[in-house]
Design brief:
5-stranded mixed sheet, 3-stranded antiparallel sheet, single chain, mainly beta
Length: about 180
């Protein structure tokens, strides 16, 4: 059996060295979980802003090696449409295995604070040694909805029109959402 899962959270490397998220005393140790305010735009240069995760979000292990290539995505969709990311997964190792390939979306410009990348789908692919497979992962634009205004907003989440990027492994492909 080949392990194929990925971490749903980031695992800090030295969580026991700090008193808490809002500990303002002294320089942060290597691997310190970033302080809440250090995560906001324009505030990531002070104490506590360094973060060396032991295992980052999405980290996973396998007995074989997988590679992705040929990423493309639907060029333009409406706010109510569906985008499809297409890519090839290859087993570059010497053993059969199962790859779980996460598909992320990044929004370079937003009117509100958004995560650096959002998981919108994944593909679970079983491959023999040396085999490849073309994969299609579709996701609705509604997965990218954000709530406008401040944290106490009573507004409904909506999808912002503009430029987005799909990320699979180290590859990116751009698409846009129209009004």
């Amino acid at each position: 059996m080949n392990p194929s899962g990925h971490l749903p959270v980031t695992w800090p490397s030295a969580s026991d060295h700090n008193a808490g998220d809002f500990d303002s005393g002294g320089v942060s140790t290597a691997g310190d979980e970033p302080k809440f305010f250090d995560q906001l735009s324009g505030t990531n240069s002070g104490q506590g802003s360094g973060y060396n995760a032991r295992y980052a979000f999405g980290f996973g292990l396998s007995y074989t090696t997988f590679a992705t290539s040929g990423l493309s995505v639907t060029g333009s969709i409406s706010r109510h449409g569906t985008a499809t990311a297409t890519f090839t997964v290859s087993n570059a190792g010497s053993r059969a295995g199962t790859a779980v390939v996460p598909v992320y979306v990044r929004q370079p410009v937003s009117d509100v604070l958004v995560p650096p990348r959002r998981l919108v789908g994944f593909a679970r692919v079983e491959l023999a040694a040396g085999a490849s497979k073309l994969v299609h992962v579709s996701f609705p634009a509604s997965e990218l909805a954000v709530t406008p205004a401040d944290i106490d907003s009573s507004k409904r989440p909506e999808v912002e029109p503009g430029a987005y990027q799909v990320q699979v492994g180290s590859q990116t492909a751009s698409f846009s959402i129209t009004g």
